[in-house]
Amino acid sequence: MAVKTSACLAAALLTQTTAAADAFAVAGQPQKISVVQRGLRGAAASQESAAPAGSWASATAVAASVAVAAAVVPRRQRKAAKLAGASMVPNKNQRTIRDAKTIVCAGPRLPEGRKLRVAVIGGGPGGASCADALAKGGCETYLIERKLDNCKPCGGAIPMCMVGEFDLPTDLIDRKVRKMTMISPTNNEVQIGRTLKDDEYIGMVRREVLDNFLRERAAENGATLINGLFTQMRMPKSEKESYVLTYNDFGDAEGDARKGVKKTLEVDVVIGADGANSRVAKEIEAGDYEYAIAFQERMRIPEDKMEYYKERAEMYVGEDVSPDFYAWVFPKYDHVAVGTGTVVDKKGIQKYQQGIRERAAPRIEGGEIIRVEAHPIPEHPRPWRTKDRCTLIGDAAGYVTKCSGEGIYFAAKSGLMCASEIVAASENGTRQITQNDLMEYIRKFDSKYGPTYIVLDALQKLFYTSDAARESFVDLCELDYVQQVTFDSYLYKTVQGNSPIGDVMLLGKTVSSLVKYNTSKVPEMRQLA
Ligand SMILES: *[C@@H]1O[C@H](CO)[C@@H](O)[C@H](O)[C@H]1NC(C)=O
Ligand SMILES: *[C@@H]1O[C@H](CO)[C@@H](O)[C@H](O)[C@H]1NC(C)=O
């Protein structure tokens, strides 16, 4: 019954992405799509948005990459164990394989006084959290970000558990979303969030505030912040060699016209936290992922209209607003974001944006567009995320759950998990690490979040197929039980739902609502349940 748990998860997950506008700035993409951006006032601008090409997303691909990650670890461990002379045949006088791994995996001790040097490329929530944990854990940490002065007039959604888990001061949160309205193709509205307790909410933060806070904290804990553009990386040819990174150091300079000074940096470990168009991913030939395109207009609406969105986010479904996703109106600091996304018809994104404008028209009338954005959103992790002592986190790795586009939490979490693994394996920065250690982080991340990707993928296929199915989807979300598990999964990033009664009720309701809307999905539904 895992499937239903996330039925509304897709709904509750609000679209935000860490793949910021800078994701478009990197040249040399395998495929370019042109997104025409239009303002309300008729001003038209054209922007070429580059996004990685790749195979079409599917549950199979995700399953495969999870399986590959899981399978590769033991194989490499076996190989390493053999090289180290440890027998792989367990016998009662010998250590278990687990023990053997602990021994084999520890890299050579670094010379006295020399710490493990780690460079984190990219200073978003993922990179900054990673650098913070690395610095605290005793590693010599460098955080390279090309836009330290970056100021996006933008908000982001973070689940409540992130506040505690990342020890965020509550004054970082601009808005607390407690209500979510789902709107079906026939404009049937279902209120979600009824089951929320008073102290439960989805936090809205401004990215420049959050990112800056996380970076400053990393610096306070000992990470070296570099205002620079990473350009190139020379791989080590042996275990003893270092990575040599080339970057353009901007020093204190801000703005687009600044000229940097070319510098190099030698490190033992490289973490790519550089977003959807990751240069690090290219350097290690991590492969591409399928992506969705998300389009969003930030709109300042009249105050009385803004009042309605004070604590509310809206999600619209229907063929008119997206063939395979949903469209949204989302409250920001002092304005709303109106947008939509799609994988299957990226060229039609303008049409769908027009669709959401029309559907939401009564509530956003008189709005003035203050900013237009388009982001590629990864659909599933990259085929390979680790090579030697280099690995990827966040959007660079492809950690954004399908349907949701919600990446801030997963980025920060992957950064933290990656850093913990490095700190533990290097014994607080005193030993060299190996590829095995980085694979261990991948394995843990996948086993923790992999099922979510697969489930959401299946759900998208099931629910985003026809307007009839969408009607039943919205209908389904009326259930308190669904609301509960949905918000729990979102707020706490745990899958609850061990309630047999709720499960049975849900199944009944699902089937009857599907029959009611006369879709042909009932057998499929039964199979999934
Ligand atoms: C690493 O540091 C932590 C806390 O500072 C300490 O508890 C732990 O024992 C250290 N580990 C090693 C292997 O030195
Ligand atoms: C459902 O569809 C079938 C055939 O596709 C049709 O005969 C039937 O009348 C429909 N039922 C309802 C309630 O629309």
Automatic annotation (TrEMBL):
<dbReference type="Pfam" id="PF01494">
    <property type="entry name" value="FAD_binding_3"/>
</dbReference>
<feature type="domain" description="FAD-binding">
    <location>
        <begin position="116"/>
        <end position="415"/>
    </location>
</feature>
<dbReference type="GO" id="GO:0071949">
    <property type="term" value="F:FAD binding"/>
</dbReference>
<dbReference type="InterPro" id="IPR011774">
    <property type="entry name" value="Geranylgeranyl_Rdtase_pln/cyn"/>
</dbReference>
<dbReference type="GO" id="GO:0102067">
    <property type="term" value="F:geranylgeranyl diphosphate reductase activity"/>
</dbReference>
<keyword id="KW-0602">Photosynthesis</keyword>
<dbReference type="InterPro" id="IPR010253">
    <property type="entry name" value="BchP_ChlP_pln/prok"/>
</dbReference>
<keyword id="KW-0560">Oxidoreductase</keyword>
<keyword id="KW-0521">NADP</keyword>
<dbReference type="InterPro" id="IPR050407">
    <property type="entry name" value="Geranylgeranyl_reductase"/>
</dbReference>
<keyword id="KW-0732">Signal</keyword>
<dbReference type="InterPro" id="IPR011777">
    <property type="entry name" value="Geranylgeranyl_Rdtase_fam"/>
</dbReference>
<protein>
    <recommendedName>
        <fullName>Geranylgeranyl diphosphate reductase, chloroplastic</fullName>
        <ecNumber>1.3.1.83</ecNumber>
    </recommendedName>
</protein>
<dbReference type="InterPro" id="IPR036188">
    <property type="entry name" value="FAD/NAD-bd_sf"/>
</dbReference>
<dbReference type="GO" id="GO:0015995">
    <property type="term" value="P:chlorophyll biosynthetic process"/>
</dbReference>
<dbReference type="GO" id="GO:0045550">
    <property type="term" value="F:geranylgeranyl reductase activity"/>
</dbReference>
<comment type="similarity">
    <text>Belongs to the geranylgeranyl reductase family. ChlP subfamily.</text>
</comment>
<comment type="pathway">
    <text>Cofactor biosynthesis; tocopherol biosynthesis.</text>
</comment>
<feature type="signal peptide">
    <location>
        <begin position="1"/>
        <end position="23"/>
    </location>
</feature>
<dbReference type="GO" id="GO:0015979">
    <property type="term" value="P:photosynthesis"/>
</dbReference>
<comment type="function">
    <text>Catalyzes the reduction of geranylgeranyl diphosphate to phytyl diphosphate, providing phytol for both tocopherol and chlorophyll synthesis.</text>
</comment>
<dbReference type="InterPro" id="IPR002938">
    <property type="entry name" value="FAD-bd"/>
</dbReference>
<keyword id="KW-0149">Chlorophyll biosynthesis</keyword>
<comment type="pathway">
    <text>Porphyrin-containing compound metabolism.</text>
</comment>
